[in-house]
């Protein structure tokens, strides 16, 4: 289990993490989401004890990570896959980590095979692609067979096969009762992988809920089909709805739920052929949750506005 309790991190006059509290529980893959600059990586560094907090604490299984005599056996972490000695081989890199934590050489070979690098174990890391370095970093996190895993953007550089492999690996580890915390900007993949989600913005907690519940917080569109589409659109707009005509005579309706649309149609004697709520996607939910917390924004070209 990972516990973040009232964590505050400051850099000069800037507050990077602001009284943040959440718990990552065993048996689940927990997604850690937030815009760029939200404080995700800073929080993960605090969990590892790489930077002292201004206030609060971050604990792994009830204690500071630095207090474990063999920390790789307690929690495996990946923060930066590029932070390795390029002149070493993949095997030498993992063997060095293994020796420092009392882990046998057999485990090094097993992990290299598990992450798909057995065939290049003797090659220097400096010649690895980004995806190969990501696999090596994941291997380092798995080396101590830990009960807790914390991975920052581990999907970067992985090809579709690698992404699917990692998704299945993380879900299988959670199914064994391990704690898994995963950050990623790939919303579609996060929706497939994570069971629970923690969302932060400007260093503060925005949401801490089941993945399915996140999109459910926001009403999506309602698809309506009727022989009197133009007339119904006028009725719905008069009651504050945003209505867009779609192909085939369908209407896409926002700002009114399906039940209210049905009541309005009945009151006007308009027959409905279809009335189907369409929930917000994870990406839509994330954008709406964090729209006030996004520090770095880009303007849209006129052609796509």
Structural features, described:
The protein has about 300 residues and is α/β, with parallel strands linked by helices. It folds into two domains: about 1-210, Rossmann fold (3-Layer(aba) Sandwich); about 220-280, Alpha-Beta Plaits (2-Layer Sandwich). It has eleven helices and 13 strands. It has helices at about 40-45, 70-75, 90-100, 105-115, 130-140, 160-175, 185-195, 210-215, 230-240, 260-265, 280-290; strands at about 1-10, 15-25, 30-35, 55-60, 75-80, 150, 180-185, 195-200, 205-210, 220-225, 240-245, 250-255, 275-280. Strands 5-6-7-3-8-9 form a six-stranded mixed beta sheet, with helices on both faces. The chain starts with a strand and ends in a 15-residue tail after the last helix. The model has no long low-confidence stretch (mean pLDDT about 90).
CATH class of the largest domain: Alpha Beta
Could you tell me the CATH topology label of the largest domain.
Rossmann fold
Strand content: 25-35%
How many structurally independent domains? 2
Sketch the topology as an H/E string, one letter per element: EEEHEHEHHHEHEHEEHEHEEHEH
Task: Identify the CATH architecture of the largest domain.
Answer: 3-Layer(aba) Sandwich
**Main beta-sheet strand count, sense and barrel state:** 6 strands, mixed
Q: Could you list the spans in which at least 5 consecutive residues all have pLDDT below 50?
A: none
Structural class: alpha/beta
Chain-averaged pLDDT: 90
Could you say which overall geometry the principal axes of the C-alpha atoms support?
elongated
Placed side by side, the strands forming the largest sheet appear as: 5-6-7-3-8-9
Q: For the record, give the distance between the C-alpha atoms at the N and C termini, rounded to a whole number.
A: 44 Å
């Amino acid at each position: 289990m990972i516990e973040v309790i009232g964590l505050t991190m400051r850099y000069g006059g800037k507050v990077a993490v602001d009284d943040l509290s959440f718990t990552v529980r065993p048996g689940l893959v927990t997604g850690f989401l937030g815009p760029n600059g939200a404080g995700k990586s800073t929080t993960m560094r605090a969990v590892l004890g790489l930077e002292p907090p201004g206030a609060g604490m971050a604990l792994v299984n009830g204690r500071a990570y630095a207090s474990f005599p063999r920390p790789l056996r307690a929690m495996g972490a990946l923060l930066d896959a590029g932070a390795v000695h390029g002149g070493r081989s993949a095997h030498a890199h993992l063997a060095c980590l293994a020796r420092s934590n009392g882990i046998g050489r057999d485990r090094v070979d097993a992990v290299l095979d598990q992450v798909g690098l057995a065939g290049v174990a003797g090659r220097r890391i400096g010649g690895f692609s980004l995806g190969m370095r990501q696999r090596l970093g994941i291997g380092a996190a798995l080396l101590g067979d830990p009960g807790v895993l914390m991975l920052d953007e581990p999907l970067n550089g992985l090809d579709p096969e690698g992404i699917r492999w990692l998704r299945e690996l993380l879900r299988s580890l959670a199914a064994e009762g391990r704690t898994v915390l995963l950050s990623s900007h790939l919303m579609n993949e996060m929706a497939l992988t994570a069971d629970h989600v923690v969302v932060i913005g400007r260093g503060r907690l925005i949401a801490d809920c089941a993945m399915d519940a996140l999109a459910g917080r926001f009403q999506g569109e309602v698809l309506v089909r009727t022989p009197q589409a133009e007339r119904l659109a006028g009725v719905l707009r008069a009651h504050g709805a945003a209505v867009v005509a779609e192909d085939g005579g369908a209407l896409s309706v926002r700002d009114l739920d399906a039940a209210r649309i049905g009541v309005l149609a009945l009151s006007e004697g308009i027959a409905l052929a279809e009335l189907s709520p369409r929930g917000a996607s994870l990406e839509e939910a994330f954008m709406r949750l964090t729209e006030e917390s996004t520090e770095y924004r880009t303007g849209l070209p006129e052609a796509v506005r």
